[in-house]
Design brief:
The structure is a single chain. This protein has 257 residues and is an alpha/beta fold. It has 12 helices and 8 strands. The chain has a 6-stranded mixed sheet with strand order 1-2-4-7-5-6. Helix 2 runs antiparallel to helix 3, helix 6 packs antiparallel against helix 7 and helix 10 crosses helix 11. The longest helix has 15 residues. The chain is globular. About 3% of the residues have low confidence.
């Protein structure tokens, strides 16, 4: 796991180097995870596009978030393909407003499991938007260069999609959990960034502080439930149209022998 230091994004890392199945490893410069790209400087854009080779951005935010935040600097580049795949339910006009979308998602999570809200969020993504999860993995697999997956914090929605991708690539479970937990090293910087935006400030401060922490037990429970209910992430993906050919294409993209 390699941190990518940028001026105006704080939770960016290249997943290259992680161990994969059969003694292989994840290729460097193929799968990047990040927080919001809204404030990238010109130097940041050069670093991501010209040096790292980002050709595809997979944006997991809701339509309301995207509209409220406006187009980021990478949007102006013809060389970068943008794939918008919201992981939140979007029903009518209510979720056209970012704050309402985030509040609605939290309310649904509390209804699902008030004792384990993060767990409920994560399975909510799979239940509400399986099309987006599958679409995100296909976008990563078909990116001609590096695929960058992001949401707002780069923790929850991004964490779920990245965990699914790494599972398909055969990354050991403990390393998937460790990558998820690594966001904790930057959590205060992430929250400071989100508080600076009217889109996210209220949602951040209305949540108990401990709920922002990427605790390893959350990802372990998420993956264990996939094991129990679907025979693992691949089982869930297969049930939702991600065929064996899709899985092999993703492995070919990510895994270096």
């Amino acid at each position: 796991m390699r941190w990518i230091e940028l001026e105006n994004a704080v939770n960016v890392r290249d997943l290259g180097g992680l161990p994969a199945a059969d003694g292989n490893r994840i290729r460097t410069g193929q799968l990047i995870r990040s927080d919001n790209l809204q404030d990238l400087s010109a130097t940041d854009v050069t670093r991501l596009v010209d040096e790292i080779g980002v050709t595809t951005v997979v944006d997991l935010r809701s339509s309301g978030e995207v509209d409220a935040e406006g187009p980021g600097p990478l949007r102006g580049l013809a060389s970068v393909k943008h794939v918008h795949l919201s992981l939140l339910p979007e029903f009518g006009e209510m979720t056209d407003v970012a704050k309402d979308a985030l509040a609605l998602n939290r309310e649904r999570a509390l209804q699902r499991d008030p004792e384990n809200v993060a767990d409920a969020f994560y399975f909510g993504y799979l239940e509400d938007r399986p099309d987006s999860v599958v679409g995100a993995l296909r976008a990563v697999a078909t990116a001609p260069g590096a695929a960058l997956v992001h949401c707002a914090a780069g923790k929850d929605r991004t964490g779920v999609v990245v965990a699914m991708a790494l599972s398909v690539a055969g990354v050991p479970r403990d390393r998937i959990v460790a990558d998820y937990e690594a966001t904790g090293e930057r959590i205060e910087l992430i929250l400071d960034r989100l508080r600076s935006s009217p889109t996210y400030a209220e949602d951040i401060d209305n949540v108990p502080a401990h709920e922002h922490d990427p605790r390893p037990d959350i990802m372990r429970r998420f993956l264990a439930r996939l094991d129990e209910d679907f025979d693992g992430p691949l089982g869930w993906l297969g049930k939702h149209g991600f065929a064996k050919v899709d899985a092999q294409r993703l492995r070919d993209k990510l895994v270096e022998e």
